[in-house]
Amino acid sequence: MIDLDKSVQNHFKVHKRASLLDVLIEFDQFLDDLNMYSYKNWFEGEVVDGPNLSRHWCEISLMYPYDQMPDPEGGKRLLARDCKVSYREDHYMEPRKVESPDDYEPGTKKPRIDKVPVWVVTIKCPKKYLMVYDRTEADQEELQQGYQQGLDDATRQSGTETDTNI
Predict the structure, then answer these.
(1) HSE-up (13 A, CA, CB side) for residue 161
(2) What phi and psi values does residue 133 have, to the nearest 5 degrees?
């Protein structure tokens, strides 16, 4: 069963860390480059878990409505790129839209909870296809190279190199 609280926590985790959001953007670009969205229903997925990063892999789970299972031919395209793809049937609990008194739990004012069937596709992708790097680390390297070349803020602003002993 998919726990919606964990899914929401995952959503906040991704949006708190820009690097995880970058991974999701790169993963989307990877799927787009493989023309995955041309296969039936691949565009309909929602991220419910991930990205979970390990040394060589990035794992993301996508949820699809039960009647909109993504085309397995698209999964074959991912297998050709050394990805690992698994499909599983699952469900999550969703509060019913209240339209009549029968939609409430007996003796309460809480709506009834319905099981909603879904497909969950878990994709484990090699990191080599996701061009992700730590931007702060790259910026520090560029800054260090600038200092080694004798460039500083005064040089950049004036356009001429000055000799300053500090």
Answers:
(1) 6
(2) -145, 160
Say whether pLDDT at 156 is over 80: no
User: Which of 105, 87, 85 is CA-nearest to residue 95?
Assistant: 105
What SS3 class is residue 53? strand
List of residues 6+ apart from 10 with CB closer than 8 A? 47, 48, 49, 50
Q: Name the strand (E) or helix (H) holding 87.
A: strand 84-95
CB atoms within 10 A of CB 153: 8
Average pLDDT along the chain: 84
In the chain, domain spans: 4-130, 134-161
Burial class (CB in 10 A: 0-12, 13-18, 19+), 42: buried
Task: Identify which of 89, 81, 87 has the alpha carbon closest to the alpha carbon of residue 31.
Answer: 81
* Averaged pLDDT, 36-52: 93
